[in-house]
Design a protein that fits this description.
Elements (H helix, E strand, L loop, with lengths): L1 E2 L2 E7 L4 E3 L9 E9 L5 E8 L5 E3 L9 E3 L5 E3 L9 E8 L3 E11 L6 E3 L5 E2 L4 E11 L4 E6 L2 E2 L7 E9 L6 E9 L9 E10 L2 E6 L3 E2 L2 E2 L5 E6 L5 E2 L4 E7 L8 E4 L7 E3 L2 E4 L8 E7 L5 E6 L1 E2 L1 E6 L2 E6 L7 E6 L4 E6 L2 E2 L15 E8 L7 E22 L6 E10 L3 E6 L5 E2 L3 E2 L6 E8 L5 E8 L4 E8 L18 H64 L1
Parallel strand pairs: 2-10, 12-21, 23-30, 32-37
Antiparallel strand pairs: 1-2, 3-8, 4-5, 4-9, 5-6, 7-8, 9-10, 11-13, 13-17, 14-15, 14-18, 16-17, 18-19, 18-20, 22-24, 24-27, 25-26, 25-28, 28-29, 31-33, 34-35, 34-36, 36-37, 37-38, 38-42, 39-40, 39-43, 41-42, 43-44
GO cellular component, one term: plasma membrane
Membrane topology: Single-pass type I membrane protein
Protein name: CD166 antigen
Length: about 550
């Protein structure tokens, strides 16, 4: 490389500078020497080498003590290159007749340290020009330049927005430069999370190069421009008994730490942190809620609906009624939305609501009126009615001779609740019969049955007794030798309703047949009456004929 037409050696700071003597060695060479020139042009000799004695001598120059080396071909090496080595060196070859000189320019380069952003601002505030930091790159030679970047783009100076000031200092002992670039910056809200960095541009032996600092992100403070209120937990519905929290937030940085909460029915705001909690909310908590900054600026609102569900069952609890009585039952609801009501009796869902105009034993049981709000999870209510239907014992006795003709079956059909206790006795003797068999007690009905083979006529008594009354009924039973049949015994009290239906059907058929027979009888009677009238006329006519015949016979006899 050439500088101003001269041969130039580029060296790296701290490395060895190697300068070949670019002269051809002439014949008759006596010695070779190296010198450098002072700024005022005066020479300073630093190295000598004889061509005949082959010895090397170095001049007593403090800056180059123990740093020089001169080879046989007169190449000069300088160890540990310094900035002060940037000089014009001259190689001299001397003969008896001539002195030849060839200059060499030495340039020394030093790469700066990686730049650092120092004295960083703790945070930046919008609409305010302030010192962001200083970019420092040390120990450079020659001096370099510093450029600021934001998000990878160059920051150009803008009055009152971007102010850059570059200072360069040199170390007098080393000759190295330190570049310090300060940046004053007025941020905007969009500068939150922006990456700031700086780049130093310097020259090295091979040309221009750059080194970049580590990026820095600053906390940008900006005022709140919007307040938002929300309800936690984030549920689509709120029901009575829930715990909720009103959360108020501002979009500033740092966010506001205190707010005013406005509760329905309250004229003044309640000062609180960013959260206001409400426990076990009731339906009267329904309404519009607001929050604002403590200076009452920037407000937001939300409407809360607390869903509720009330159920009233009349009557409820345990209710005892007498058989045949009426019992009006009502289940009413009050809710924030349409609710569904359904009834359950003894763990079985009913198709219709219960209605009792005349209570029967089968109406007794555990009733549940339940309701739920489909759209509100967990909101359901239920109330129970335990219905007890009581009745005094009712008795009906039947008898029949068994098919084997060896015994008779006497049945005492009993109704009542609580379940009556049944006792059999023989009237007259008063003896108690303990061999009765009972059917299952269902819907207030059951049967007690005994089998006997009386040798003579007896009267049996069935006694049914519960907490309400004692009922006694007797039945005369003939001796076993006299067959007798009473009303057929109910085969299964569980099928009593079916039997009743069948009885009704049979009665209907019988009534129909009787009506048909009556009509037929009337028709027949009319027919017979008409027939009798006609026969009377016939008999009369026949009588007249007979009488005439007798007269004729008498006349004939008299004539004879």
């Amino acid at each position: 490389p050439l500088a101003l037409g001269l041969y130039t050696v580029n060296a790296v700071y701290g490395d060895t500078i190697t300068m070949p003597c670019r002269l051809e060695v002439p014949d008759g060479l006596m010695f070779g020497k190296w010198k450098y020139e002072m700024p005022n042009g005066s020479p300073v000799f630093i190295a000598f080498r004889s061509s005949t004695k082959k010895n090397v001598q170095y001049d007593d120059v403090p800056d180059y003590k123990d740093r020089l080396s001169l080879s046989e071909n007169y190449t000069l090496s300088i160890k540990n290159a310094r900035i002060s080595d940037e000089k014009r060196f001259v190689c001299m070859l001397v003969t008896e007749d001539d002195v030849s000189e060839e200059p060499t320019i030495v340039k020394v380069f030093k790469q700066p340290s990686q730049p650092e952003i120092l004295h960083q601002a703790d945070f930046l505030e919008t609409e305010k020009l302030q010192m962001l930091g200083e970019c420092v790159a040390r120990d450079s030679y020659p001096e370099g330049n510093v450029t600021w970047y934001k998000n990878g783009r160059v920051l150009q100076p803008v009055e009152e927005v971007v102010v850059i000031n570059l200072q360069k200092t040199v170390n007098k002992s080393s000759g190295l430069f330190t570049m310090t670039s300060s940046l004053q910056y007025m941020p905007t809200k969009e500068d939150a999370n922006a990456k700031f960095s700086c780049v130093v541009t310097y020259y090295g032996p091979s040309g221009q190069k750059t080194i970049q600092s580590e990026p820095v992100v600053f906390d940008v403070h900006y005022p709140t421009e919007k307040v938002t209120i929300q309800v936690l937990p984030r549920s689509s519905t709120i029901k009575e008994g829930d715990n909720i929290t009103l959360k108020c937030s501002g979009n500033g940085n740092p966010p506001p730490q205190e707010f005013l909460f406005y509760i329905p029915g309250e004229t003044e705001g309640i000062r609180s942190s960013d959260a206001y909690s409400m426990t076990d909310v009731r339906r009267n908590a329904t309404g519009e809620y607001k929050c604002s900054l403590t200076d009452k600026s920037m407000m937001d609102s939300t409407t809360i609906t607390v869903h509720y569900l009330d159920l009233q069952l009349t009557p409820s609890g345990e209710v005892t009624k007498q058989i045949g009585e009426a019992l009006p039952v009502s289940c009413t609801i009050s809710s924030s939305r349409n609710a569904t009501v359904f009834w359950i009796k003894d763990n079985t869902r009913m198709q219709t609501s219960p209605s009792f105009s005349s209570l029967q034993y089968q109406d007794a049981g555990n009733y549940i009126c339940a309701t739920t709000l489909q759209e509100v999870e967990g909101l359901q209510k239920r109330k129970t009615l335990k219905l007890i239907v009581e009745g005094k014992p009712q008795i009906k006795m039947t008898k029949k001779t068994n098919t084997n003709k060896m015994s008779k079956t006497i049945v005492c059909h009993v109704e009542g609740f609580p379940k009556p206790a049944v006792q059999w006795t023989v009237t007259g003797s008063g003896s108690i019969i303990n061999k009765a068999k009972e059917t299952k007690y269902v819907n207030g009905k059951f049967s007690s049955k005994i089998v006997i083979a009386p040798e003579e006529n007896v009267t049996l008594t069935c006694i049914a007794e519960n907490q309400l009354e004692r009922t006694v009924t007797s039945l005369n039973v003939s001796a076993i030798s006299i067959p007798e049949y009473d009303e057929p015994e109910d085969r299964n009290d569980d099928n009593s309703e079916k039997v009743n239906d069948q009885a009704k059907l049979i009665v209907g058929i019988v009534v129909g047949l009787l009506l048909a027979a009556l009509v037929a009888g009337v028709v027949y009677w009319l027919y017979v009456k008409k027939s009798k009238a006609a026969s009377k006329h016939v008999d009369k006519d026949l009588g007249n004929i007979e009488e005439n015949k007798k007269l004729e016979e008498n006349n004939h006899k008299s004539e004879t």
